[in-house]
């Protein structure tokens, strides 16, 4: 069984196109898990309007006193964690609310996921604008993929919307760090440390960048030098703590 986990927040403009591109690739036994962080637009109405029993919607509101609730990265991570906690599939795919899955996104990935080891698969993507005009043909040409944990701490190539993994990874990943580090970086490091990571060179997603994009994944960060050093320090602490727990 496959679970596709989508964190949503005010994603009405593109969510229908995204979900339709996913529904066409999953079976009747699979599921799409929506975790919505209190959208104020008609995101949920649009999703319900698709009237597909494979779609399961959960409301999520991060706790105001949570350490992770202090910035966008933390809030997104909490929303993703909520979606993951509701999933029941053997194979879990992450998805943004505003991209488009290309044909073969699932079939090309499953070839590598059917393993007893914790396994992560990251596909390539093409970066597009609001009107689907291609800005970057290959994301991997912009950021060279690497499963090295040292390289990941410096510059992660674990791009959330391009990631899939088996349940063995999820069992090792929970509980997530109590720091605002990327959920995708965390899942990628877990796969790299305990099992296997595969990078698929073929672009299987149109990764949309637009004025309302929530994160700056892979692109220029506005954080100060001090914040970047602090962030990498938190990654190292989180990894050591995670290893001790597991």
UniProtKB/TrEMBL annotation:
Gene Ontology molecular function terms on file: hexosyltransferase activity
Gene3D superfamilies noted in UniProt: Spore Coat Polysaccharide Biosynthesis Protein SpsA, Chain A
EC number: 2.4.-.-
Record-annotated Glycosyltransferase 2-like domain positions: 3-173
Cross-referenced SUPFAM superfamilies: Nucleotide-diphospho-sugar transferases
Keyword Transmembrane helix: no
Keywords: Glycosyltransferase, Transferase
Bilayer-spanning residue ranges: none
Classification via Pfam families: Glycos_transf_2
Entry protein name: Glycosyltransferase
């Amino acid at each position: 069984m496959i679970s596709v986990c989508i964190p949503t927040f005010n994603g009405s403009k593109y969510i229908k196109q995204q979900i339709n591109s996913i529904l066409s690739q999953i079976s009747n036994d699979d599921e799409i898990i929506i975790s919505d962080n209190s959208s104020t637009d008609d995101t949920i109405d649009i999703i319900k309007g698709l009237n597909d029993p494979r779609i399961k919607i959960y409301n999520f509101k991060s706790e105001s006193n949570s350490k992770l609730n202090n910035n966008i990265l933390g809030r997104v991570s909490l929303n993703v964690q909520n979606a993951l906690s509701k999933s029941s599939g053997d194979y879990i795919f992450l998805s943004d609310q505003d991209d488009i899955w290309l044909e073969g996104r699932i079939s090309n990935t499953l070839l590598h996921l059917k393993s007893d080891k914790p396994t992560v698969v990251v596909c390539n993507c093409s970066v597009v604008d609001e009107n689907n005009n291609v800005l970057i043909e290959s994301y991997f040409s912009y950021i060279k993929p690497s499963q090295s944990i040292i390289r990941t701490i410096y510059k992660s190539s674990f791009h959330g919307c391009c990631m899939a993994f088996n349940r063995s990874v999820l069992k090792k990943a929970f509980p997530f760090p109590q720091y605002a580090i990327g959920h995708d970086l965390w899942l990628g490091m877990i796969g790299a440390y305990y099992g296997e990571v595969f990078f698929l060179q073929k672009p299987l997603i149109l990764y949309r960048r637009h004025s309302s994009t929530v994160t700056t994944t892979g692109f220029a960060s506005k954080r100060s030098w001090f914040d970047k050093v602090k962030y990498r320090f938190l990654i190292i602490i989180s990894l050591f703590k995670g290893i001790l727990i597991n």
